Amino acid sequence: DIQMTQSPSTLSASVGDRVTITCRASESISIWLAWYQQKPGKAPELLIYKASTLESGVPSRFSGSGSGTEFTLTISGLQPDDFATYYCQQYKSYLFTFGEGTKLEIK
Amino acid sequence: EVQLVESGGGLVKPGGSLRLSCAASGFTFSSYGMNWVRQAPGKGLEWISSIPSTSSYIYYADSVKGRFTISRDNAKNSLFLQMNSLRAEDTAVYYCARRGSSLSGFDCWGQGTLVTVSS
């Protein structure tokens, strides 16, 4: 199975900051990676797919990059609504796997 | 409006069974692959099973293989998860999720249903 490793597990930042979350795959997944945002008590929401394609309706301050085994999610100009937990997910293999999550906290 | 609504969760004893349902509306259900994803209390997301639009090939995570069965009824716009031989570690919120396309991730999620396995 393909393992997904996210870092950091927790990230403290302030409104207006630019932050980056990293996701690494245990083997090459090409560009078959998605990013999700989850707020407490809510279902996850798709932000980005194919590593860098923004889902419809997602603000342009979110961006994704990478291919192969290393990927990043960048949020430029943090807004109060962005403090949440973020997950990456590979879908190269039909055994879809998620990263462990990165909790973005207010500093 | 695209909507997924799960039901069927509850309290069950270890070794027991439960059947979850997910009712879809607002889109052509028969055209989309569907998935179940769970989240144990305070933990991350765990994909557990997927079924394509035609039910032709089905996949399970090792943690549930042989105990859980995913199925769908395209005529009733419904997705199901039959869970047998339940264990305490199966306690989680269970989400159904639509895969947007073969190029995309899971673009629509239900609100989740809580399954608690405890004696």
Can you describe this structure?
The complex is a heterodimer of chains A (107) and B (119). With 107 residues, chain A is mainly beta. Chain A has strands spanning 4-7, 10-13, 18-25, 33-38, 45-49, 53-54, 62-67, 70-76, 85-90, 97-98, 102-106. In chain A, strands 2, 4, 5, 6, 9, 10 and 11 form a 7-stranded mixed sheet that branches. Chain A has a 4-stranded antiparallel sheet with strand order 1-3-8-7, with no helix packed on it. Chain B has strands at 3-7, 10-12, 18-25, 34-39, 45-51, 59-60, 68-73, 78-83, 92-99, 106-109, 113-117. In chain B, strand 7 and strand 8 (78-83) form a beta hairpin. Chain B is globular and about 40 Å long. The termini of chain B are far apart. The model of chain B has no long low-confidence stretch (mean pLDDT 96). The chains are: A mainly beta (107), B mainly beta (119). The A-B interface holds A 1, 34, 36, 38, 43-46, 49-50, 55, 87, 89, 91, 94-101 and B 35, 37, 44-47, 50, 57, 59, 61-62, 95, 99-100, 103-107, 109-112.
The class by helix and strand makeup of chain B works out as: mainly beta
Question: What overall form of chain B do the CA principal axes indicate?
Answer: globular
Radius of gyration of chain A: 13 Å
Assembly classification: heterodimer
Distance between the termini of chain A: 36 Å
Largest sheet of chain A: 7 strands, mixed
- Through-space gap between termini of chain B: 39 Å
Tally of helical segments of chain B? 0
**Global morphology of chain A:** globular
Sketch the topology of chain B as an H/E string, one letter per element: EEEEEEEEEEE
Rounded to an integer in angstroms, the radius of gyration calculated over CA atoms of chain B is 13 Å
* Order of secondary-structure elements of chain A: EEEEEEEEEEE
Mean pLDDT of chain B: 96
Strand content of chain B: over 45%
Give the low-pLDDT segments of chain A. none
**Strand residue content of chain A:** over 45%
Output the number of helix runs of chain A.
0
Give the rounded overall mean pLDDT of chain A. 97
Helix content of chain B: under 10%
